Amino acid sequence: MALTIVVFYLFVRNRISIEIVSLMAIAIIAVGLYFYPMPHTQPTDGLVLAFSGFGHYALITICALMVMGRGLVVTGALDPVARFLERVFKINLQLGMLLSLALALVLSMGVNNTPVLVLLIPIFVTLAARGALPASKTLMPLNASSLLGGLSTTIGTSTNILVVSIAVDLGMQPMGVFHFTPIVLAASLIALPYIWLVMPRMLGDNSPDKGVVRRWFVTRLRVPPTSNLNGRHFDEVVDMLPEEFRFEERPNGPFSTGQRLRVSGTHDALEDAIRVLQGQIAPGWVIDAIQREARENGGDIQVVEMVVTSDSRLIDRTLPTSGIADRFGVGVLGIHRPDRPLRFDEPQEVHGDMRIAEGDVLLVMGLSPALATFAQADSLLQLEGAREVPRRSKALLAATIMGASVGLASIGLLPIAIASLGGAILMFLTGCVKFDRVGRALSGQVIVLVAASIVIGRFVLESGAAGWLGQALAMGLQHLPPAGVLAAIMLFVTILTNFASNATAATVGTPIAFAIGAELGLPQEPLILAVLFGCNLCYATPIAYQTNMLIMAEGNYQFGDYVKTGVPLVLLMVVTLSVLLVTTYSM
Fold this sequence. Notes:
It is built from 26 helices and eight strands. By secondary structure, it is of the alpha+beta class. Strands 4, 5, 6, 7 and 8 form a five-stranded antiparallel β-sheet that branches. A three-stranded antiparallel β-sheet has the order 1-3-2, with helices on one face. α4 packs parallel to α7 (about 115-130).
């Protein structure tokens, strides 16, 4: 227990990185148990325990789920859903958040909450990239709401099934799927306002690009025969335009095929405008050539930003006279001129195209080798933050793989570990996720933290520390009222859940609650439910539950974020559920 407390303290202080603290904990357990083994064990058994987390099914499951989530993002499979939610969020941010929380809660009541959150995470990451609430302000509330939904039924989480099965083995009557749902839904009415209104305000904007000015690029919008603009007037399309996009030139009459109109906007806004208007911001033959080469070579199309240096041959040229597309096979989507407002009275060619100047930022699309050759040959400085163009041809395939994996796990046909691992392998085999890009899907911080939490949980259980805590609890409950007994059991199990694992808490807490009920003459069912509820109040640490780990990398959370938002929610739920149990069972 001393090791667990020290590790928790270091996590919260955040002076040493989580990876280092996790590895130190594993090393201390390995070395300590090698020289001072537990009773009836060999020194090498301690090494097996210390490193068992890296091969644990929970870690494999989390990594596989990360890979599948990456597949949905890079193929753009969730863009339609993200656009729908984006419209809701634009109507009202709070309404969009409330609907999302309700969706997560309801889905998690009938489906294991892990696959539910796996589906929601990439949607809200995409939403954040499109300008909605930052992922750090949405993912933790969504996780809390999905845990509330999982708490509502006996099939909502695997821990619920474990607690009920242990209680039945001890002699209690079986519980139906919705046996305690009314109690949890009543508690949810108290907890949801906190999750909806308070929790997002307690979380900062952890976006990696926070504070970065979004560049505006000037380009030409070409109207092909298939464009939605043909035959329409400007007033008919103005409501369709993204917020950060504008026409710098307007046609005198209706739009017509072949027009090249000056427009400007951010990178995201330009992409949205192309999709909505079915226009082009680079010559069609260039885009077709890049896409054809990507299909033939199996490469990824990227969009990067490049700065024009003083040695570049492009200075004082325009895009049509630069020969970039012919020489390098890349397409320039737009030009950003920094440090001064956009001006259209600078020296121009006959067709009104901007001359490229030193310091301009070019938005360039192409394959990685061609982009590198272009940057080197024309003395350009490539900026960080290259963005892959979604492989939309595989979007349906990626969504099908994810849907099949989640479905098989949800109906119990396959364990979540097997279903997710199979889905991740299919993502690789079908090319939805490139094997050499798998590092972008995984988080080293999460991997090491999960491995350490598994080891600490096993150590707490096998060393007898959990049993000792249970005995101490039983001795101190004799003089408490029923509500106090329930709250104490729930808090005890919650502590075990947040510091060890919910499986450990269920295994230790259920027999203790059963024995306390017999000793104090209290009905055993509410005490067992107190254990079940406590096992699911895993909001206060990232190591408490696998979905907490899943959101950690995407939300860029620190350990302290879980503590400051989770502890008040735990206390709120413990008080509310204890009162409801006493009322329901007339204790």
